[in-house]
Amino acid sequence: MLRIAQLSAGYSGVPVLHDVSIEVEEGRFVAIVGPNGAGKTTLFKTISGTVAPMAGAITFGGVDLLAVPAHRRPHLGIAHVPEGRQVFPSLTVMENLEMGAYTEAGRIAWAETLERILEWFPVLGERRGQPAGTLSGGEQQMVAIGRGLASAPKLLMLDEPSMGLAPAIADFIFERLIEIRRQSRLTILLVEQRVAEALESADHSYVLEAGRVVLEGDNQELRADDRVRQAYLGM
Amino acid sequence: MAVVTGLIMLENILQSLAAGLLIGAIYGLMCVGLALIFGVMRVINFAQGDFMMLGMYAAYYAFALFGVQALFGSTIGPYVAALLAAPLLFAVGYGVHWALVSRVTGTRTAGLDGDGHYAQLILTLGTALILQNGAMIVFGSYPVSVQTPLSVSAWEVGPLWDDYVSVFVNKARGIAALVSVATILLLARLIASSRLGKALRASADNPEAATYMGIDVQRSHRVAFALGTAITAVAGALLATNYPFHPYVGLEYVIVMYAGVVMGGMGSILGAFWGGMTIGVVQQMSTLILPTQLQNTAIFVIFLLIVFLRPQGFFGRVVERT
Question: How far apart are CA A37 and CA A171, in angstroms?
Answer without folding.
Answer: 23
